[in-house]
Amino acid sequence: MEMEGGEGRVVLITGASSGIGAATARLLARQGMRVVLTARRQDRLEALAQEIEREGGAALAIPADLGDPSAREALVDQVEARWGPVEVLINNAGFGYYATVEDTPWEVVRRMFEVNILAMIHLTQRVVPGMRRLGRGHIVNIASVAGYISTPPLTVYSATKFAVVGFSEGLRRELEPHGIHVTVISPGPVRTEFGRAASGLEVDPGEVPGGLAPEAIARAIARALRRPVPEIVIPARYIPAIWINRVLPRLVDWGTARQGRAWLRHLEEARRSGSRSAA
Questions:
Q1: What's the rounded Cα separation, in Å, for the pair 202 and 80?
Q2: What are the backbone angles phi and psi of residue 140, rounded to the nearest 5°?
């Protein structure tokens, strides 16, 4: 079903200070939506909000640490007090950590699940009542191809993205009778700050040549808001790999294990090189 234009719709975007979130905010604001930007980095949020407003859009910057349940509750309260119910929720915030399961600090595991999964579920719980009162809404959850094919050294991150996919599927079936759409977007590698944050290095040692620009994901989100679909895998060339992983997992095991070992060696070399440069 084709949806009408987004003029005036209230859109809450998490992880909006950079990458996919920032690109999506710019695009949806140009389409007439009122965008609420949230992330931890207040300076970036405010700069983005000012940029959008200079171009004639409407933006509201609300810094929040989504790992904190009370901050999530306060976030939705502030949006509703200012602009009314959230009509579109884009759960984009998330992070990864390059390491084996054994070498991933427990605090990192705990926070990754808090930000990547629990924040998504909690914000969904907070905005759905308003959507039901309106009789419409759209929740877009950003997963990953890693939510279908788990590859070391991102095993824990992949687990969170598998959860995003499963949650989105069930949520779609719950909310569809109420006129609320749910879409899960599963990108392949994207040129963002993800790798630098996950590795702790100034330069992303795992950047994949040909990785997508964040704007490509933003356009996919905008298409889903105009014409709701359950799922988008982007680029589509990953769809055969997902199916092969389902029917011939042992074949994929060999390739991903080999790739993971090589990647960990590459990461360790990059970290040693970075340490030498700093010295």
A1: 38
A2: -115, 120
State both tokens at 59: 């933006």
| CB-count burial class (<10 Å; 0-12, 13-18, 19+) for 80 | middle
**From 97, 98, 148, 157, active-site residue:** 157
DSSP string computed for 67-134: TSHHHHHHHHHHHHHHH-S-SEEEE-------S-TTTS-HHHHHHHHIIIIIHHHHHHHHHHHHHHHH
Q: What is the pLDDT of residue 191?
A: 78
Q: Is 28 helix (H, G, I), strand (E, B) or coil?
A: helix
Tokens standing for residue 105: 């600090």
Say what the pLDDT of residue 2 is: 42
Q: What amino acid is encoded at 204 in this protein?
A: D
Domains of the chain by start residue, with CATH: 10-278 (3.40.50.720)
Q: Name which of 239, 222, 247 is nearest 29 in CA terms.
A: 222
pLDDT band at 217 (very low <50, low <70, confident <90, very high): very high
The answer to whether 39 and 63 have CB atoms below 8 angstroms apart is yes
User: Is 97 a catalytic site residue?
Assistant: no
Cα 201 versus chain centre, distance: 21
AA identity, residue 11: V
